Amino acid sequence: MLPTAKIGPYTLPNPLIVAPMAGVTDRPFRLLCRRMGAGLAVSEMVIADSKMWHTRKSRSRLNHQGEPEPRSVQIAGGDPQMLAQAARMNAASGAQIIDINMGCPAKKVCNKAAGSALMKDEALVLQILKAVVAAVDIPVTLKMRTGWDEGHRNAPIIARMAEEAGIQALAIHGRTRTDKYTGNAEYDTIARVKSDVGIPVFANGDITSPEKARDVLQYTGADGLLIGRAAQGQPWIFREILHFLETGEHMKPPPLNEVETILSEHLLALHDFYGETMGVRIARKHVGWYLQSHDQDKRFRQSFNAIDNALEQHDSIQQYFASLRNEEVFAA
Ligand SMILES: Cc1cc2nc3c(=O)[nH]c(=O)nc-3n(C[C@H](O)[C@H](O)[C@H](O)COP(=O)(O)O)c2cc1C
């Protein structure tokens, strides 16, 4: 049931990949997801323009210390030579796979005709693919959407172009650029691409449960899956899906104690990676995701968001979980 996923010379430990998410898939989150079962975690995009690389944000994105192999780094931009240069620089600083972003609808990226906006200009896409593949001797992969809009689902055309240009794997989000994140992902275009090309194809979009993972794999024939938003606040989703695909049985959700340990360690890693001021800020959104299903009236999260130092954040999480455990005792 579990497909074997390969990218160039790398055989992934399993076919579940953490989808790149700017502002989310930083090194602490990637390491955590790998520990929780993901077979690969693609880093956040690095803007191709190297003039931006001195910023603190870019520097943190270029940090891959301690990450298990293979390390895949996403690049974004609209200029073939700039992207080629970005690929070379990332390969030199430890990337083992370069992923080109043609999947992101963000204005910041699309206004400069990058991300999914590129899909409108197939000639430019071809130039970019060829330039990046020629620039490095490591595998280059492409992440895209199904097309520009409903009337222009050109992922199959770009997929064939990509295969000819030497791209080694494709990830396809089952939405068009104009869909943004609305409506449901469709998997017909992904299935079509999979049947058209010989390189590995990874399906992406709305994979939120073990059953959905099984169904999308079966329906599309894909070699693996990319999982994004469903991993926010529940990085254990990877081991749960793996367990289900391997055994057909559901793994029990993690007990409170384990959720507390995972969350506390995640906070510690964020504080350590970003430093206290930024780490405390970034921790808030992760805590928001982890506690979505617990703290339904958001009272705890409101008070947590007012905390401005690392130690207090830790103490407050400890107290919160202690009170949840007390409630469990009383409810029993
Ligand atoms: C906060 C956020 C940031 C994202 N950033 C990127 C990005 O930098 N590069 C990219 O290719 N896709 C990006 N995406 C898209 C995801 O990789 C993925 O394609 C999309 O979320 C659909 O998968 P999902 O339904 O599993 O979340 C982002 C998505 C989110 C929610």
From TrEMBL:
The protein's matches in InterPro entries, at most eight in alphabetical order, are given as: Aldolase_TIM, DUS-like_FMN-bd, DUS_fam, DusB, DusB-like, tRNA-dHydroUridine_Synthase_C, tRNA_hU_synthase_CS
Q: Which residues form the DUS-like FMN-binding domain?
A: 18-319
Signal peptide bounds = none
An MF annotation (GO) of this entry: flavin adenine dinucleotide binding
Q: What is its EC number?
A: 1.3.1.-
Per its UniProt record, what Gene3D superfamilies does this chain match? Aldolase class I (3.20.20.70), Putative flavin oxidoreducatase, domain 2 (1.10.1200.80)
Q: Which keywords label this protein?
A: Flavoprotein, FMN, NADP, Nucleotide-binding, Oxidoreductase, RNA-binding, tRNA processing, tRNA-binding
Indicate which residues the UniProt annotation says bind FMN: P20, M21, A22, Q74, K143, H173, N204, G205, D206, G228, R229
Q: Which residues form the active site?
A: C104 (proton donor)
Q: What is its cofactor?
A: FMN
Query: What reaction is this protein's catalytic activity?
Result: a 5,6-dihydrouridine in tRNA + NADP(+) = a uridine in tRNA + NADPH + H(+); a 5,6-dihydrouridine in tRNA + NAD(+) = a uridine in tRNA + NADH + H(+)
Q: What does this protein do?
A: Catalyzes the synthesis of 5,6-dihydrouridine (D), a modified base found in the D-loop of most tRNAs, via the reduction of the C5-C6 double bond in target uridines.
Q: Which family does it belong to?
A: Belongs to the Dus family. DusB subfamily. Belongs to the dus family.
What is the name of this protein?
A: tRNA-dihydrouridine synthase B
Tell me the name of the encoding gene: dusB
